[in-house]
Design goal:
The protein is of the alpha+beta class and 376 residues long. It has nine helices and 19 strands. One of its GO terms (molecular function) is metal ion binding.
Length: 376
């Protein structure tokens, strides 16, 4: 009864007076939102397409996560799809609502809430694969990495499946330092290969070096994902799935895991900003290089600047000019670089731990324009 009374009092505080479109700008294969406000400061967001179909999805949300609380929350999601865009788009549609649901049930944001959100999103997508199995079996071969960041009451939660990355820019004795906050799950990392071998002791081919690249079962580089149903359950590893995705030997437990690695970090005044990006950025820039770029350049358009720096490096590796790389169309562009998505959150120490959120409610999707800003 008390909870219902509180909700009746609080809910009008979040009722929008009007909504404004706040989608970004598209320039060829580039999409960007140069600047905006999240619950704890400014942000910048950008993406560039390389695949014939953009397989990345992303979002930034700023709102109280619990309607019974007025504490400010910022949510960032980077979803690096593979095999198609469907899983990444599904995560963009369902992860944040799942997070709100479990946070409301437990009346808090916690590691357990985040784990449940991953599990519910995974199960939701696998159910979709089941429903469409006979008409679209290839959905079983589509998956996505899933990197999320949540800032709530002065605490930053970073959760990850796959090889996207979150890097903190921290000021130490007047020098900006890069601190990686996310664990990565890529078979190129020895500890990941060892983890796979320990979990599958009876499978000598759980990781295979193929064309000088380590792959799980010779098929995929990442060991933890959402989707990829064909490597989660034998019910999806059969006809009518294409033969190249079907394993010749049966498996009795999931080969890939949807379980995220989660880091909990109490923000302090030395923490200046966080870079969230798909692995396409980190293929060309080190953590420190990215942090130095953000630290030395204007905030406005900084995500776009990071992508430009990565593309310049990609062009240099192929001994070509950046201006020529930009002329290459999607699809062919994938031979030079991957889809790249970047979100930079700047951290205003005066707002990070603030319990009352008086700013606009933001919901921004990278690239698709399905975004709103609610002015209170």
């Amino acid at each position: 009864m008390v909870g219902q009374t509180v909700m009746r009092i609080v809910r009008p505080c979040f009722k929008p007076d009007h909504q404004l479109a706040v989608g970004g700008t598209r320039d060829g294969l580039l999409w960007y939102k140069d600047t905006g406000r999240h619950a704890c400061g400014d942000f910048s967001m950008a993406l560039v397409q390389a695949n014939n179909l953009l397989e990345d999805a992303s979002q930034v949300e700023a709102a109280p996560l619990l309607l019974s609380h007025s504490s400010s929350t910022t949510f960032v999601g980077i979803y690096d799809g593979h095999g198609g865009p469907e899983t990444a788009h599904f995560i963009a549609q369902h992860f944040f609502p799942n997070l709100k649901k479990f946070a409301t049930e437990q009346q808090t944001v916690s590691v357990d809430v985040i784990r449940k959100s991953y599990a519910a999103t995974e199960e939701g997508f696998l159910n979709l694969v089941r429903k469409q199995w006979l008409i679209k079996p290839q959905l079983a071969s589509v998956g996505s990495c899933c990197l999320v960041g949540i800032i709530n009451e002065g605490v930053l939660y970073v959760a990850n499946t796959g090889d996207s990355r979150a890097v903190l820019g921290r000021l130490e004795r007047g020098v900006i330092k890069a601190v990686q906050l996310s664990a990565e799950h890529n078979a190129s990392i020895e500890s990941v290969r060892e983890e796979l071998r320990q979990f599958h002791p009876d499978d000598p081919r759980i990781v295979v070096l193929k064309h000088n690249v380590w792959r799980v079962k010779g098929l995929i580089q990442v060991s933890r994902t959402l989707g990829d149903a064909y490597l989660k359950s034998t019910e999806f590893n059969r006809e009518p799935l294409l033969a190249r995705f079907r394993l010749s030997e049966p498996f009795h437990k999931p080969i890939l895991s949807p379980e995220p690695s989660i880091e909990v970090h109490k923000l302090c005044t030395e923490d200046q900003f966080v870079i969230f990006a798909s692995d396409g950025l980190w293929e060309h820039l080190t953590n420190q290089e990215a942090v130095d770029i953000v630290n030395c350049a204007p905030r406005n358009g900084i995500a776009r600047r990071l992508i430009k720096a990565a593309l310049r490096e990609a062009a240099k590796k192929r001994e070509m000019r950046y201006s020529d790389l930009k002329k290459i169309d999607r699809g062919v562009r994938r031979h030079f670089h991957d889809d790249i998505t970047v979100v930079v959150l700047f951290l205003d120490s005066a707002l990070v731990g603030k319990r009352f959120y008086g700013g606009p409610l933001l919901s921004l999707r990278g690239g698709d324009g399905a975004s709103t800003l609610t002015q209170k």
